[in-house]
Each structure stands twice: as structure tokens, then as C-alpha cells.
Amino acid sequence: MKQLFDVLFSSRRRALAAALLGGLTAAVSLAQTPATGAPIRIGMIEGLSGPIANTGDAVFRNLVWATERVNARGGVKLPDGNRPLVIERFDSKGQTDEALSALRSAMDKGITIVTQGNSSAAASALIDAINKHNERDTARQVLFLNYSAVDPALTNEKCSFWHFRFDAHADMRMKALMSVLREDRQLKSVYLIGQDYSFGQAVLREARSQLTAQRPDIAIVGEELHPMARVKDFLPYAAKIKASGAQAVLTGNWGNDLTLLVKAARESGFEGRFYTFYGNALGAPAAMGDAGIGKVIAVADWFPNVPTPASEAFYRSFRERFPSPADDYVHMRMQLMIEALAQAIERAGAAGPVNAATIAAQLERADVTLAGQRARMRGADHQFQQSLAVAVMDKQGTPGVRFDVEGSGYGFRVIRNLTPQQAEMPHTCTMQRP
């Protein structure tokens, strides 16, 4: 076991904070039945070394915090006693073949719930491997929870009974971004750039489709894909963007591929907007600096500056748990994913034996709320349905920007909210159930 976390909140103050977050119950009693049963282990398969290690570490913090909250209220409640949730880490090194090797290691240790997200290519391979394993070994079937791999195919033509996605897929995110971009009547030219793998390709494909449908007057003056996590110097790309005359860049880049791109754009003198999927974290705001004010636009399931008391309490609780500015990376969907899992396990236990198949059957109807954010699982394709928001970068302290990002002095002001119904999109999944 590489790392094992079953930390329980011990102080009265943290128990009260957990109650304020407004999880699955209206309040959390200070006198809980402790979780003393065998831990329910969740295998996190993610890049924890190499060029995208910072993203894997950030996910780990989110999942640890989510399990701590469940464990603070007594863990997962089953007929034979309460059981804590724990996270075990498996390093994929950012490579698909290593992700498959990590899956085998997790299964060899008896883990039947795995989670992954920071690569749609890896997620696709994991789905295939888990499908084959579960058909062959019905006694040790495995459940796959996906928190970030957003290639639309994963819940469409590649949908699987064993796979559940808790992030909005790329087309849903593009729809949210386009709700803002299409209203920018001064925008006449855009440059499309992305990482050369299934997700990046899907982003550019959907960008072309939605631009054609909603703003045919906007010219796509450049379009290219680059190797993922391999480019060290984005200045040549930035030079081409500037030379194209583009007024805006639309990109699904994440991790260092986004940070280095916006740094290079700033150094090259590019003054246009960035419409991004992930421009609100992992160094991007600090890299852009003042040049990003009013120009970097991002889409997410939630932002720290959502103006509600429940949301503020949620964010302050995270920052108390992880006070270092470098650790400031929290995602509501990852918290909701763990809440949905705990809910599904408890429902499965109340109905009979608990295993991957019975948990999956309950996850199909998951309906969870945390910090005022409610989301549900769509059983037909296992795509989580949740609200989405679009926000623009600004200085901390300006109206609507109470909190900054990673101590950078810059935060994101929410400018558009989409309800789950507005964010929802049709699917082509034909679910094969065991």
C-alpha cells in the first residue's frame, strides 16, 4: 500500500464545519458511531510522477478530504457496522500502459473500486480492461469512477455499466463556454489549439461544430494539436497564434501544457482572450498575471467565488485543511463523487450483498447535495448531471472576487450559470447490463 488515509476529524470545530457543508443529511451529530469495520478501499490510478504529477497530487488531496468528511460522520453505514473510506495511490506516471499496470496491481490487492480521470486515453483503456475482467471474473468485479476524463465517447459509444463519469464531458463544457463566447459580438477570429489525444481532439472537433452552428461569422484562423506533456517551449506556438491575427484562443489544455502556453502567449505579446476548460488553476492565473484580467475565461462545475454562504463555508473548510497556497485546488465534483459512492454503498448494503454490481445499480440513481450544489447520475449513460459555471479572471478584491487562486492575487468572477437541465446533452449510449 503506497499511502493509506483514514483520518477522522477529531475536533468539535471540524465536526461543525462538516455539518455546515450541508452534505447528505441536514446536520451531523457530534456523537457519531465510529467507523471500526474493515476499510472500504478506493484505488486512485493517476500520474504521481513525471510532467503531470502536480495534477495527480491535487486530485489526491481532493479525494482525501472527501473521505475524511464521510469518515467524520461515522463512515459508511452498513448492517454489519460502520466502515471508513480510504484512498490508496497507484502511480500511472501519466502513461496509459502504466495505468493498466496500476489497475492490475490494485486488483491483485483485492481493491474493487478504482478511480481515475487525468487522461481520457487512459480512461478508455481502463474501461476496456475492466469490461473484460468483469466478464471473466464475476467474483471479483471492479467499479470505475471517473472524475475528470471528459472525452464524450466514454459515456456514448464506449459507455459501460462499470464506468461512471462525474465530470461534465467536453461537449457539455464547450456548450457552457459557447454561451459566453457567442455573445462577444466584437470577436471575429479564433485560434484552436489542443493536446494531441482523444480529449484534445474532441475539444477541437466540438469547437468547430459549435462555432459553425452559433457564430458562423467567426473565422478559425488557426488549428493545431501538439504532443501532450512533451512540449517544453510554447513560444513557437504563441508566435503562430499572434501572427494569425486571432482575437481569442480556445483550448482544452490542462496541467503544464496550459501553464506554459499562457506564459508563452504573455511573453509573445498576445493580447487576446483565452477561452479555456481549465484556466482557473494549477499555475495558469499566476502565469498570465495582469495580462489575464478580463481575458482568461474558464468553465467548471463550481468556483470558490460562488456567492452563497454554503459555498464560502465549503471553500474555507478546504483551505483550513490544506492551508498552503500551492495546495489550493478543490473540485466540487470530486467531493460529490465520494458522497455518491458512500450513498450507493449504504443503499446496496440495505438491500443485500455489497459488491461492484450492487453498488453500480445504486450509483445509477445517485442524487447528492453538498454546499448547496445538487447533482444526480443519469442511469441511461452514467453521465453525472450537474450545474456548470463560466467565470472570468480578475484581481482579488474586485466585486465578485473574494477569493484568489493559489495565492496568486487573481481569482475568477462567475459570469454565467447553467442549471443541470441547461447543461444536459443527449447521448448515444446503449447500456449493456450484466
UniProtKB/TrEMBL annotation:
Q: Which PROSITE patterns match?
A: TAT (PS51318)
What is the annotated signal peptide range for this record? 1-31
Q: Which UniProt keywords apply?
A: Signal
The Leucine-binding protein domain, residue ranges: 39-397
Q: Give a Pfam family name.
A: Peripla_BP_6
Membrane-crossing residues?
A: none
Under SUPFAM superfamilies, the record lists: Periplasmic binding protein-like I
Q: InterPro entries this protein is in? A: BCAA_transport, Leu-bd, Peripla_BP_I, TAT_signal
Q: Which domain of life is it from?
A: Bacteria
In which family does this protein belong, per the annotation? Belongs to the leucine-binding protein family.
Q: Which protein, by its recorded name, is this? A: Branched-chain amino acid transport system substrate-binding protein
Native species: Hydrogenophaga laconesensis
